[in-house]
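Task card 7
Instruction: Convert sequence to structure tokens.
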Amino acid sequence: MAELREAWRAIEAGEFTHGPRSAPTARGAATVWTPAPGARVVAVVGCAGGVGASTVALALATATEASARVVECCSPLASGFSAAANAELGTEGPWRRGNRGDVMLERPITDDATVPVPTESAVEWTFVDTSWTTLSGAGAGWLGSVLRTLDDVVLVTNATVPGVRRLESCAELLGRDALGVVVGPTAKRWPRPVKVAAAGIPARVRLADFPLDSRLQVTGLTPDPLPAPLLKAAQNVLALLRKEPT
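Output:
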């Protein structure tokens, strides 16, 4: 049904496989994004490249067991979702869309300096998949305002000394409460140098473990279901997001 709804929306917008296509809508050039009333928006911020932020964002969206989407905010060449959808739904304005069950994947079509404003959506959860450059002030437009106003920010890094130091730096750039997701072994199994480096992470950042999947390290995200340990970890992260900070 979700695919049929998207197909009908494309027909109404004049978007066809053959023949003329509608020009990108004006909202793609906007700099302000206002989520739908009642929608839950979570920013998933990669503290460095290749730490698994897109995998974490997709796992969180899947674990909600509700209508959800992941809005990927990077150039098409850097996309982690190019082969992740079960069904490609074409384009809407400046975005390419795909489905994974109840999860919608949206990624930009063009490599513009400014990420276009997300499309309108009636989903219950939106996960904004972005990078640390947004925290540094390089993310212009709506992305910067989202990071300044959202209650839920997830900082993703890996269980290495450089990784936890990047998490500390990103937490300082953010300057407020956040949830730190560390991809790799559980905290109890971190090597001693990693534990020592993690002592510098601000107390306002709550930490959560997230397993590293060896298969996904090789294949990247595919249409196959995510491994059960990743979904279980995502459920734990969602539980922390729903819990008020102490």
